Amino acid sequence: MQVVATRSPAGERILVASDLPIWDTLRVYRLRWTIESTFSALKTRGLNLEQTHMTAPNRLSRLFGLLCVALAWIMRIGVEETQDKPIRVMRKKNRPAMSRARYGARELGRAIRWSKMSFQTYLDLLSTPFPSLGGQNTQPVRC
User: Fold this and answer.
1) pTM, whole model, 2 decimals?
2) Which residue intervals define the domain Transposase IS4-like in the entry (predicted)?
3) Which of 10, 74, 104, 123 has the most CB atoms at less than 10 Å from its CB?
Protein backbone atom coordinates (compact mmCIF):
# COMPACT_ATOMS: atom_id res chain seq x y z
CA MET A 1 0.00 0.00 0.00
CA GLN A 2 1.28 3.44 -0.93
CA VAL A 3 0.15 6.81 0.38
CA VAL A 4 0.11 9.67 -2.12
CA ALA A 5 -0.14 13.27 -0.91
CA THR A 6 -0.97 16.22 -3.15
CA ARG A 7 -2.81 19.52 -3.11
CA SER A 8 -6.02 20.33 -4.94
CA PRO A 9 -6.22 23.42 -7.20
CA ALA A 10 -7.97 25.12 -4.25
CA GLY A 11 -4.97 24.34 -2.03
CA GLU A 12 -6.55 21.58 0.09
CA ARG A 13 -4.38 18.63 1.13
CA ILE A 14 -5.40 15.31 -0.38
CA LEU A 15 -4.10 11.97 0.90
CA VAL A 16 -4.88 8.80 -1.05
CA ALA A 17 -3.90 5.26 -0.05
CA SER A 18 -3.76 2.71 -2.85
CA ASP A 19 -1.86 -0.26 -4.17
CA LEU A 20 -1.60 1.34 -7.64
CA PRO A 21 1.53 3.13 -8.91
CA ILE A 22 1.71 6.81 -7.87
CA TRP A 23 0.59 8.43 -11.15
CA ASP A 24 -2.17 5.87 -11.67
CA THR A 25 -3.41 6.51 -8.13
CA LEU A 26 -3.91 10.22 -8.79
CA ARG A 27 -5.52 9.64 -12.21
CA VAL A 28 -7.93 7.00 -10.87
CA TYR A 29 -8.73 9.10 -7.79
CA ARG A 30 -9.64 12.11 -9.98
CA LEU A 31 -12.03 9.94 -11.97
CA ARG A 32 -13.47 8.34 -8.85
CA TRP A 33 -13.98 11.73 -7.19
CA THR A 34 -15.81 12.96 -10.30
CA ILE A 35 -18.12 9.96 -10.14
CA GLU A 36 -18.69 10.40 -6.38
CA SER A 37 -19.50 14.10 -6.85
CA THR A 38 -21.92 13.27 -9.67
CA PHE A 39 -23.79 10.69 -7.61
CA SER A 40 -23.86 13.07 -4.65
CA ALA A 41 -25.47 15.74 -6.86
CA LEU A 42 -27.95 13.20 -8.25
CA LYS A 43 -28.86 12.08 -4.76
CA THR A 44 -28.89 14.16 -1.57
CA ARG A 45 -27.19 17.34 -2.79
CA GLY A 46 -29.41 18.11 -5.71
CA LEU A 47 -31.94 15.99 -7.53
CA ASN A 48 -32.97 13.53 -4.77
CA LEU A 49 -32.80 10.37 -6.91
CA GLU A 50 -32.93 8.19 -3.79
CA GLN A 51 -36.45 9.41 -3.01
CA THR A 52 -37.94 7.58 -5.96
CA HIS A 53 -39.56 4.25 -5.21
CA MET A 54 -39.30 2.95 -8.76
CA THR A 55 -38.20 -0.64 -9.19
CA ALA A 56 -38.88 -1.26 -12.90
CA PRO A 57 -35.46 -1.19 -14.60
CA ASN A 58 -36.65 0.46 -17.83
CA ARG A 59 -38.41 3.28 -15.96
CA LEU A 60 -35.48 3.75 -13.63
CA SER A 61 -33.15 3.88 -16.63
CA ARG A 62 -35.23 6.62 -18.29
CA LEU A 63 -35.42 8.57 -15.04
CA PHE A 64 -31.66 8.29 -14.60
CA GLY A 65 -31.09 9.57 -18.15
CA LEU A 66 -33.42 12.50 -17.59
CA LEU A 67 -31.73 13.35 -14.29
CA CYS A 68 -28.31 13.28 -15.98
CA VAL A 69 -29.50 15.86 -18.52
CA ALA A 70 -31.02 17.93 -15.71
CA LEU A 71 -27.79 17.68 -13.70
CA ALA A 72 -25.71 18.86 -16.65
CA TRP A 73 -28.07 21.82 -17.10
CA ILE A 74 -28.13 22.90 -13.44
CA MET A 75 -24.35 22.44 -13.17
CA ARG A 76 -23.92 24.67 -16.23
CA ILE A 77 -26.18 27.27 -14.60
CA GLY A 78 -24.32 26.93 -11.28
CA VAL A 79 -20.93 27.47 -12.92
CA GLU A 80 -22.22 30.44 -14.93
CA GLU A 81 -23.87 32.09 -11.93
CA THR A 82 -20.90 31.62 -9.57
CA GLN A 83 -18.79 33.75 -11.90
CA ASP A 84 -21.01 36.75 -11.07
CA LYS A 85 -22.38 35.81 -7.63
CA PRO A 86 -20.01 33.46 -5.77
CA ILE A 87 -21.43 30.91 -3.33
CA ARG A 88 -21.08 32.04 0.26
CA VAL A 89 -18.33 30.24 2.21
CA MET A 90 -19.16 28.90 5.69
CA ARG A 91 -16.71 30.38 8.20
CA LYS A 92 -16.33 27.39 10.51
CA LYS A 93 -15.82 24.76 7.82
CA ASN A 94 -14.22 27.01 5.17
CA ARG A 95 -16.39 25.34 2.51
CA PRO A 96 -19.09 26.63 0.17
CA ALA A 97 -22.52 26.74 1.78
CA MET A 98 -23.99 24.73 -1.12
CA SER A 99 -22.88 22.77 -4.15
CA ARG A 100 -22.88 24.22 -7.65
CA ALA A 101 -25.64 21.76 -8.53
CA ARG A 102 -27.89 22.97 -5.73
CA TYR A 103 -27.05 26.60 -6.55
CA GLY A 104 -27.90 26.02 -10.22
CA ALA A 105 -31.14 24.25 -9.30
CA ARG A 106 -32.12 27.13 -7.01
CA GLU A 107 -31.41 29.73 -9.69
CA LEU A 108 -33.28 27.71 -12.35
CA GLY A 109 -36.28 27.40 -10.01
CA ARG A 110 -36.29 31.15 -9.44
CA ALA A 111 -36.07 31.81 -13.18
CA ILE A 112 -38.96 29.45 -13.92
CA ARG A 113 -41.12 31.11 -11.27
CA TRP A 114 -40.20 34.77 -11.63
CA SER A 115 -38.15 35.69 -14.65
CA LYS A 116 -38.79 34.79 -18.27
CA MET A 117 -35.60 36.56 -19.36
CA SER A 118 -33.40 34.56 -16.97
CA PHE A 119 -35.10 31.33 -18.00
CA GLN A 120 -34.40 32.07 -21.66
CA THR A 121 -30.76 32.77 -20.79
CA TYR A 122 -30.54 29.46 -18.93
CA LEU A 123 -32.21 27.68 -21.83
CA ASP A 124 -29.58 29.13 -24.17
CA LEU A 125 -26.84 27.72 -21.91
CA LEU A 126 -27.84 24.22 -23.02
CA SER A 127 -26.36 24.90 -26.46
CA THR A 128 -23.12 26.60 -25.33
CA PRO A 129 -19.88 24.78 -24.48
CA PHE A 130 -19.15 24.05 -20.84
CA PRO A 131 -16.09 25.99 -19.60
CA SER A 132 -13.29 24.15 -17.84
CA LEU A 133 -13.39 24.49 -14.05
CA GLY A 134 -10.58 26.12 -12.13
CA GLY A 135 -8.68 27.14 -15.24
CA GLN A 136 -7.54 23.57 -15.81
CA ASN A 137 -7.20 22.05 -19.25
CA THR A 138 -9.30 18.99 -18.60
CA GLN A 139 -10.55 16.45 -21.06
CA PRO A 140 -14.26 15.57 -20.95
CA VAL A 141 -15.06 12.27 -19.26
CA ARG A 142 -16.95 9.87 -21.50
CA CYS A 143 -19.81 8.03 -19.87
Assistant:
1) 0.68
2) 27-72
3) 104
